[in-house]
Amino acid sequence: xxxxEVSQAMAVEKMLKAAGYMVRLVAPPPELRKGCDLAVEIxxxxxxxxxxxxxxxxxxxxxxxxxxxxxxxxxxxVKVTDFGRWVMVKAGNMKITYEKESGVIVNVSGGGCPxxxxxxxxxxxKRLDQAPRPKALGFxxxxxxxxxxxxxxxxxxxxxxxx
Amino acid sequence: MxxxxxxxxxxxxxxTLGKVTSESGYLVVGGRSIxxxxxTGAMVSAALATTSYLGLEAPHALLVGDIGKxxxxxxxxxxxxxxxxxxxxxxxxLHYWLPNMSQxxxxxxxxEKCARRPIMIADAASMYSAKAAGLAEKxxxxxxxxxxxxxxxxxxxxxxxxxxxxxFETDITRAPxxxxxxxxxxxxxxILLAKGAIDYIIKxxxxxxxxxxxxxxxxxxxxGTGDTITGLVSAFAFAGLELHEAAIIAAKVNRMAxxxxxxxxxxxxxxxxxxxxxxxxxYLCQWxxxxxxxxxxxxx
Lengths: 163, 300
Hints:
The structure holds 2 protein chains of 2 kinds.
Chain A: H1 6-18, E1 24-26, E2 39-41, H2 47-57, E3 78-82, E4 86-91, E5 94-99, E6 105-110, H3 115-123, H4 134-137, H5 141-158
Antiparallel strand pairs in A: 1-2, 3-4, 4-5, 5-6
Chain B: E1 2-8, E2 16-19, E3 21-23, E4 26-29, E5 32-35, H1 40-54, E6 60-65, H2 71-87, E7 91-94, H3 101-112, E8 119-122, H4 124-132, E9 141-142, H5 146-153, H6 165-168, H7 175-184, E10 191-194, E11 199-203, E12 206-211, H8 225-238, H9 243-260, H10 269-273, H11 276-287
Parallel strand pairs in B: 1-6, 1-7, 7-8, 8-9, 9-10
Antiparallel strand pairs in B: 2-6, 3-4, 4-5, 10-11, 11-12
Helix pairs in contact in B: 1-8, 2-3, 5-7, 8-9, 9-11
């Protein structure tokens, strides 16, 4: 499913998952790309129902095309660096650093999309479990990486393994 | 003039162009206050600190509010496309915005019409769009971090979120190898300042210099310390240094400022920037051919 705007793709993916569809965000193949750099992968068998749901929700998309098998999935790898009193978690091009004892986010770094400085301001000095979700406030792939970094931070912190 | 273009995280801030000043810890552009935080604010602050010390004309900044929806970014691109010829900056440094390949192509075409081509520097998403649009070679300097240099090396990737996993798993020591791949795939600017635990200055695939001292690991978590490097290298290029020399000095200054600030992972980038004048005073003459005298490209 191709879109003009990254924000449209992220919203459709979120809505479809809530509706129970198995979908994922992917890079559209260059030969199919018509708008932005993010697409939603769906099971083509479900196309009619999804199109109907999107129409009911008045959610825009450009077209639905068959996808080639080798389209790169979004990177989901993370790296963790222990700085003693602090932990840095890196997901793709985004990093979150928090204080182990308090769980307070002390820095956000990396990225290059315009929602990142905004998210930086929104997340800094907040506890991991009280920080806003980057996916809820952001619009871009950088925000998506930040979301993954926050998920990993929360898993580390809430799991009692504060390192 | 040196022109820095990028978005700032201020909702509804209109497109604003002006010479940068500093007031009570904030940047001031066109009468508007901009926080010196991660992103374009940190980059501009670093450039201003450098031009102020060197006695050069302050940077001009073209800024717009955008928190990710892309509306401000599109206005920013379009203003540059329409006005870059008349602005005719000596250095054009591009930073945070929503990557748009089509407008990047239009901008590069507009730059080609300038009577004198500006030195083109890109970081953040302006680097992503330049590479994704196949226009990396139009740029003089990119300043990628380890993930971003892997992105430049991956011919299929249009954003660092899509790099192959095996590339993400590498560290900065593979920068020379990844840079060679990036040059092979036409994904690199003429000079790469690959910033990480070791900083590599690479030109046309050849490593010209490595900087690893002082070793300040806590710089990496601090949001904006990559942005400051880009601001520094832009200002040193504006001062007339050879571009590879500008990159080397920028990397050294950033590291030393981190050491001077006794940074921890909780330090804020403004504390690092505050140390730049002291680092300049102690080391600039030793490291470079600029010691604070006016000159370079300031009169251009």
